Amino acid sequence: MMKRMQIFEFTDLPWWPEVLRSLLTDFLELLMKVTQPFSPKISLLTEVMKETKQTRFVDLCSGSGGPWLSLIKDLQKISGENISILLTDKYPNSERAKKLNPISGLNYFPYSVDALAVPSDLKGIRTLFNGFHHFPPDYAFDIINDAVKNDQPIVVFEILQRTWFDFFYFMLTPINLLLLTPWVQPRSITRLILTYLIPIAPIVVSWDSLVSILRCYTPEELMNMAHQTNAKHYIWKTGKYRHKGLPVTFLVGYPAKEK
User: Fold this and answer.
1) Looking at residue 258, what is its pLDDT?
2) Using omega within 30 degrees of 0 as the cis cutoff, is the peptide bond preceding 186 cis?
3) Rounded to 5 degrees, what are φ and ψ at 241?
4) For residues 123 and 132, what is the distance between their CA atoms, to the nearest angstrom?
5) CA-to-CA distance for 5 and 135, rounded, in angstroms?
6) d(CA 102, CA 97)
7) How many CB atoms lie within 10 A of CB 250?
8) Which of 66, 86, 77 is nearest to 42 (CA)?
9) Angle between the 68-79 and 42-52 helix axes, to the nearest 10 degrees?
10) Confidence at residue 184, expressed as pLDDT on a 0 to 100 scale
11) Is 240 in contact with 247 (CB distance < 8 Å)?
12) pLDDT of 54-78, one tens digit each?
């Protein structure tokens, strides 16, 4: 097992240009669309819905929308429920919101939402896809604890596992980037230039991918954070799996039904 390290990622830098940030986020969006890494555990989402009788999700650190663009259809089909997703971010993207809001069931919240202190009026199952590793331990705990304090369910998924195997495996990311870039949306000359002529995209994506491995939490560390909330009425589940070659780690927590 590798020791966790809190090293910077380019996409974490507040001054990092959006055109460069999108090189990674849009690539990840396509990768998730192609591999559907969370589909093997979609039952966890339906379980939380059933146990808490909620059909609204409040997604944190949504960025460009992440897996919800395709996941919402699968979840609606499996659950048979009319699901709504509220996408939120600390730095909301107004242009992205215009494109996402017309999608049935998806809404992009126009105001800044801090994952450490979600407004109490934003009720729903909190989800965080591929963003939890960005937070150091104290802040990561605060995210979980804030959900507990507001008696809201929380679901965390990461396409990451902190192992040496995955560290070296993710060194192949530049190859995947070069192969998939022609299909990344939105297509643009700028993206092609920054990928194939001036290799900024391969460098940034490689660095952030490898650093993400070093920053992610193990199921045991996630469970320790959950237990530190002292929420005895919560049901917690953690674990990891692989799907189409991608490593996934997850945490699920929700208040138990009163007997």
Assistant:
1) 63
2) yes
3) -160, 175
4) 20
5) 11
6) 9
7) 20
8) 77
9) 60
10) 92
11) yes
12) 999 999 998 777 788 888 889 999 9
Closest CA to 208 of 134, 110, 126: 134
* pLDDT, position 51: 95
How does 139-159 read in b/e, with b if 16+ C-beta sit within 10 Å? ebbbbbbbbbebebbbbbbbb
Provide the β-strand partners of residue 163.
Answer: none
Please, are residues 44 and 252 in contact by the beta-carbon 8 Å criterion? Answer: yes
Return d(Cα 251, Cα 259) in angstroms, integer: 24
pLDDT of residue 44: 96
For residue 196, how many C-alpha atoms fall within 13 Å in the half-sphere facing its CB? 11
Burial of 138 (0-12, 13-18, 19+ CB in 10 A): exposed
Instruction: Measure the CA–CA gap between 22 and 63, rounded to whole angstroms.
Output: 9
Positions of the chain with pLDDT lower than 50, given as ranges: none
Q: Residue 243: beta bridge partners? A: 246
- Spatial strand order of the sheet with 56-59 comes to 106-108, 84-87, 56-59, 125-129, 154-158, 246-255, 234-243
Distances, alpha carbon 143 to alpha carbons 18, 173, 176, in Å: 25, 29, 32
Overall pTM surpassing 0.85 (yes/no): yes
Find all residues with CB under 8 Å of 17, minimum gap 6, and list them: none
Q: Give whole-number Cα distances, 74 to 25, 63, 88, 144, 198, in Å.
A: 22, 21, 21, 26, 38
